[in-house]
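name: query_chain
kind: protein
chains: 1
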Amino acid sequence: MAEAIVSFLLEKLGEHFIEGATAEAKFLFGVRDKVEDAKRELIMMRGFLKDADAKARGGDERVRIWVQEITDAAYDLDDVVATFVLKEEAAATKGMVMRFACLFKRPIELHKVGSKIDGISNRISKLNQSLQTYGVKMSGESSSNQRLKELRQTYAHVPNHDFVGFGKNIEELVEHLTDPASGVVSICGMGGLGKTTLAKEVYHRSQVKNHFDGFAWKYVSQQFQAREIWEGILFNLLSPSDNRRKEIKAMLNDEVVTKLHQVLQQKKCLVVLDDVWTIEAWDILKAAFSENTKILITTRIKDVAEHAKKERRGFVCEPQTLTDEESWELLEKKASYLQSIKTINPNNYEEMKKLGKDMLKHCGGLPLAVVVLGGLLSEKQTVDEWGTLHDNVKELINKGEERIDEQEYKGVFAVLGLSYDELPYQLKPCFLHLANFPEDYEINVKELCKLWTAEGFVLNDNEAHKCLMALVHRSMVQVGNRSSIVGRIKTCRMHDLMRDLSLEKARSENFLSLMNFQEAEGSGVSTQVMPTSKIRRLAVHSNKNIVSQLLSLTNNRDGCLRSLICFGPEEDLRYLGDLFKPLFNCFYMLRVLKFENISSFGRMRLFTKEIGRLIHLRFLSLRYYGEYQLPSSMANLRCLQTLDLRGDAVISKMVVDSMNIVFSKLDQLRHLYLPIFDVTFLDQLRLDNLKILETLVNFDTSYCKLDDLSMLTKLTKLRILTKKGLGEFKPAFNLQSLAIINYIDDPEESSEMDKVPSVDCLRIQKLKVNGPFVSRLQENILPPNLVKVTLENTYLKVDPMPILGKLSKLRILVLGSLSYYGKKIVCCKDDFSQLESLSLQRLGRLEEWRVEEGTLSKLCYLEINHCWGLKSYPHGLKNITTLKAIEIIEMSEGFKTSFDQKGGEEDCHHEIE
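structure:
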């Protein structure tokens, strides 16, 4: 890890400070020579750090301490230089009198900073001199530039079709799930065995899909909230509107249980509970399930499966690990080039097969370990490279067997650990950062990219996304949800074993401290770890009083904390106002501050003037907080890149004035998420100074000036709220994603054309319109290069398909609830030539859908949801050979019968990630 930290710092010093690539270089005047001296010491050391990191991971305690000391020195140098530059920059913006006063203090400040840098340089120099003592050698690996080139190549993510083995298990599971006599079906086995993958394979089998009327899938995990599970199942089964969701969330627990029980009694449903850890968890959750509900459980704990089986006449499936041949078959699929080598050079293939099968012995037949090994081998295409990796695996497995206690993890952890060791240095901090998140947490990809950018792991969000895809490519991160089956990844998550690995590495390398106050039993890796005296990043998972826990951290700390991310239910965060003032005073080096589920009970006390001390802050998220009056000191946060204030609040003139003062100074802000205000007056929020803003969410025309948008030339994503139309709105030239939310109560209140923007920007690729629009779409009203269109509550009275079908680049189309008020739609011949995903949702008046020959020629995914009036499945869809998935949700019996006759069983089967 030292290699990554030092390399990042040298890039920062070289590009931003020393070489004058930015205006910040001038603020180093007076300490430039001292920084250059420290930089030279680090450059001399960098070549040895790869070997040092390897020796530290290999168990050499002296080298591990040496690596930690150089890491701390690099962090300290970064903190000192960055703080000095920011203070110098702030002083340069002050008035003449203040600048004159600063001239008398500057020599003293320069002496203090210079002394600190000299001290750090001396520490680094002594560490350099001790290299030979520890036997650390210069690395012969490729340069960091070559590594960066490797990282920046595109990794194409292909949906996982690499399912191998478990044929008998699938037959048994399908049989018992469709057997009325079986109540609970469980898949039981060790971590990494592929229980969830097996459950998904069965879940999407056509026999299962045709047998049930409703489906729900929920992750449970060790640290679950029963209320969240019940709500999630209800949402899966009902697909409720936003208003209905709010009503459900307002229910008491008993009311939610009763409602779910009623829904499950009314129709035949399959509910999957993935990753159940305790009998107590099952006993709590089962209260909401009716007798006719079929439950599919995955669990590592056999007692859980047997307990559920006894209660509801169930069946327990215990998959075995892969055989040697199945493991090799899966490995071949992951290292797909092997088939070419088999044809071109059979001798090399046989040698690689021999090496591969020997390495596979250390995987224990676990699919996860095989997939990870395959990811490693996918980039090593010669016999020599396979031989080198083979030797490393054997060496690592011997050491692993000495350190790992649980028999089931022996060998597997060695392979997983090697997947970390083999990462380019740019990816290691990204992987370790994932240890911040709770078990089975669905991680928002866009937010994750912003966090990595704020931490300084990458230069921008695009580079962050490439890093994430590189981890996905190596099977170290799992894909969660997508915007559609062909869309970008929206969420990701980590397998338990990979999360354990991330936690273990983050602790051993002192990258992250985790305080987990959530009570759990049976954890594979303990997460109840109190931080050491010097921590850089802290994640807090709490079910208890988080305020007192965090207040204890503010005592006797050295202020070097860079990231604080807290997770906890809303009721635990209501008194955060008692925390923020000491927090802001103590941890003034913070780059990232993120709290989940902040309630409004602490209003008027959260944002205190002390927040202005956090001059390094780049990411600030305080979502669901009720008071938005910002102290003027927030204008000091000149480095802030992301500000997330989403939630509901009442706006006032004082709130707008405070925001205007702050926003006028935050010229580095790239992503701004505004709250949704209950507007009680008309005043203007000014955003025209945010020149490099890329994302603007909840821009409300009731209190924001549309003219400001023309000044935001870097804007790529915009979400507008309006109640009065957009008039002559001209989107920014670089705009790529536009959402228009017209929250007018009555669709007939205002004329149609008032609400139509001039969307002639050629770069717009994604368009979402929610609310009254026009009665009919016309040619040239939509941008020509749209890739995705979502319409909701638009009340279109004329079939929009003839216009939408002419968009030559359209790949994803969603006609959502009340988007169309007519009875018939027609997909005309040769239209929708590039469309891959089509969703029809809650079109209550739709009765007929005609699909002509030659249309939808590339359609892969089709969803028809709650279109009760639609009488039959279009005959024309039967001719589309590209269809991979069809989701039929809450449709009439007549439509289902028509689908069975025209759609065919195979069309309905697809594995969806």
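note: The first strand starts at residue 184 and ends at 188.
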